Task: structure prediction
Amino acid sequence: MIYFDNAATTKPCAEAVRAFENCGFGNPSSLHGLGVEAEAVLKDTKNAILKKLGKEGEVYFTSGATESNNLAVFGTANALKRRGNRIVTTAIEHPSVAEPMKKLEEQGFEVVRLKPCEHEDFEKAIADAVDEKTILVSFMSVNNETGFVIDSKKVYNEVKKKFPKCVVHSDGVQGFCKVPIYADIISISAHKIHGFKGVGALYKSKETRLLPTVYGGGQQGGLRSGTEPVELTAAFGAAVRAYPEDLSCFSELKAHLLKLLGEADGVTINSRNSVDNIVNFSVQGVRSEIMLHFLEEREIYVSSGSACSRGKISPVTAALGISPKDADSAIRVSFCRDNTVEEINALAKGIADGIKRFRR
Ligand code: PMP
Result:
């Protein structure tokens, strides 16, 4: 099997599996030794995440980034609604940010959505849209469909210079471990970095105030009630620690793939200003799903755009400047550190064969 769908999910690494198996079963709220041990596991993972992010502050565990994004958006809006009602975001957000934004709009918030295809300098456009009424800026650090990068340092610095009280949130799911992320709150997910599904986290700077979206036993300082998923969290920490600092493997794979795609007939590259582990391209005259299933017959797994959009052409691709025709034949290839040049060769051969067989 050749797996090139790592932006959808990754295989848990050996370190994560081992950490899961070796983790005690105690409840961190228990006062006895097993509880203390479990609490220590949470602390260890928090420290690993903070170190990787290069930040000081707080980390809250959630069921995944969907919940982290909901907590970030609703938690900020509810905490700050007396101060203002304007929110600035982008038109390329994952549904776990985009849908909460729609709900806030229904509640009377003004939501401004910016499209990268309409701005030369997208970071400046985001920062320029902020005014004194704006309580939240929310943008993804890396887009899941094309790998498009938003320079969070630039947005963060520009926004804070003018409006220090405006909260900056970044959906860091695709960017975590790959690009630096500057924000007051950051959502991350374990299963995108070789941990398990079912656990994510929300980083928050000490000064940022959020209201909970889940109420209950008051765990995690009351911000996210519910018994913490200790075993999944142990694996999350191990996956973070095992994630390499040196990501040159991605740039090598990307360069090789781009070279082979350049030699192929009628292939357009949709990724621009993108991370090295995601390449989105369109094979003219072959619909995404046809190519996807053809490759699957060879046990090569890719995605047609974003797995979350389940085959529907997404408005996100349009906002990224991709034409409907290109979107209809878009393939997303996303690497992990275990992929090889030989696997890229097999993919390129598969695409060339698919073109011969299906091109209309
Ligand atoms: N944001 C982005 C950018 C994503 O790619 C995903 C996963 N597709 C999510 C949020 C949701 O993450 P989770 O699967 O952990 O809920």
User: Anything to note?
Assistant: Residues 246-358 form a domain with the Aspartate Aminotransferase, domain 1 fold (CATH 3.90.1150.10). The pocket of 4'-deoxy-4'-aminopyridoxal-5'-phosphate is lined by residues 64-66, 69, 94, 96, 140, 144, 171, 173-174, 189, 200, 308 (CB under 6 Å). The chain has a mean pLDDT of 96.
